[in-house]
Amino acid sequence: MMCERPPRSLRSRLPLTREPPKAAGGRSHAISNWSGRNVFETVVHIVNTSYHVYDAFQDFNAMDLIKINEHPHVRFNPLLREWVQVSPKRSDRPWQGQIETLAREQLPQYDPDCYLCPGNTRVDGRKNPQYESTFAFDNDFPALAPSVPDGHYAESGLLLARPERGICRVLCFSPSHDRTLSRMSGAEIGGLVDAWIAEYVSLAKESHIDYVTIFENRGAMMGASNPHPHCQIWATATIPNEPAKEVASLMAYRDRHGDCLLCAYMKMETRLKERLVFENEEFAIIVPFWAVWPFETIVISRSHIGSMAALEECGRNELAFALKNITWRYDNLFGCPFPYSMGFHQRPTDGREHDESHLHAHFYPPLLRSANIRKFMVGFEMLGTPQRDITPEAAASRLREAGGTIA
Ligand SMILES: [Zn+2]
Ligand SMILES: [Zn+2]
Ligand SMILES: [Zn+2]
How far is the centre of ligand 1, averaged over its atoms, from the C-alpha of 114 (Å)? Predict the structure, then answer.
């Protein structure tokens, strides 16, 4: 349950019995501007991470809006119900920080020392088959085990631990050591989408699996242990933190507005186009209004479906082309193999309906200004609020321009 108490500095100045505003259409009091006593009321709604924030802002019209391309401000992430600091002018500052070196050498199509290439032997002695499309296997060094002893650990209600069962899989995208998503054909990525669906469906059938997370770490900068294009699939007995927050937000938004948050968001962004990078019949790629990472994107299905398994063949192809499109743009942006962490959020597999779920993927790339300057999440971002320098609108514009001719 979210804590809805204002911070101490505000609590001391506010009546503690203040009622939260009523639901949309029934606000108990208006907030007319940012000055005087009303500021406190506004701030209370802002620090409040519930959807009451929308009610607070509905009293402003476009004339009241701050200039989001000029002035420092915070933006609300409705999926996580958190705030992001945006400091538009800060990217002008001189950079004397760390410069990363990216591996630019041409990778071979086959590497005899790669434990993911076809026919090679893995660390545990098992030999990979001569696979010709995708290849999935149980991770040789899993972070989760299918069976762990029952029980729990509890000390004074503060030190709590419980067992977490799970299955960790690895899925190679293709036999080619050098064929990243951006360099695979649409048809090849279509085969990968089919493999993701097969993994999701088969893991969902396991009674102890409540969630399946499919994710790719690309590039050494993101901790990828092997350059051979592959993803990991972690199936867990509980819903992990990030999707759990999203499930709660999607449910809360639907209860309050009678609509799906991501359907409404996707429709608005495809109409406004300012943060839209690419769209096809079935998917839209957007730099979210609340993006934290410089060139972060979200890939949202146009139809309200909970997982890739609900996609028709045409939808699977469109997802493949959308993934090709965004990874191609990323590589073009700074003329380098663009590192990122990406992954899908889909319907939990806990046996409940979860009709609030809406298929989407997040791309979180760390690069900021060039192939060798990355963003660090440090200082205020660890201790306070995540912050970004270039605006999401500027990032979307850069990504739109980085399309070139997609091979
Ligand atoms: Zn390889
Ligand atoms: Zn939806
Ligand atoms: Zn998500």
Answer: 5
Q: Tell how far the Cα of 2 is from the centroid of ligand 2, in angstroms.
A: 23
DSSP letter at 165? B
User: Catalytic pick from 45, 52, 230, 358?
Assistant: 230
pLDDT of 279 strictly over 50:
yes
Count of C-beta atoms within a 10 Å radius of residue 297: 28
Other C-beta atoms lying within 10 Å of the C-beta of residue 42: 19
pLDDT on residue 295: 96
**pLDDT for 276:** 98
> Considering every ligand atom, which ligand is closest to the CA of 357?
2
**328 vs 59, residue with greater confidence:** 328
Q: What is the pTM of this model?
A: 0.85
CB atoms closer than 10 angstroms to residue 254? 15
Looking at all shown ligands, the one closest to residue 261's CA atom is: 2
For 225-253, write each residue's pLDDT tens digit.
799 999 999 999 999 999 999 999 999 99
User: Does residue 304 have an active-site annotation?
Assistant: no
Which ligand is closest in space to the CA of residue 260?
Answer: 2
> Is residue 168 within 8 Å of residue 143, measured between CB atoms?
yes
Question: What domains sit in the chain, N to C, each tagged with a CATH number?
Answer: 1-65 (no CATH), 92-98+241-401 (3.30.428.10), 135-235 (3.30.428.10)
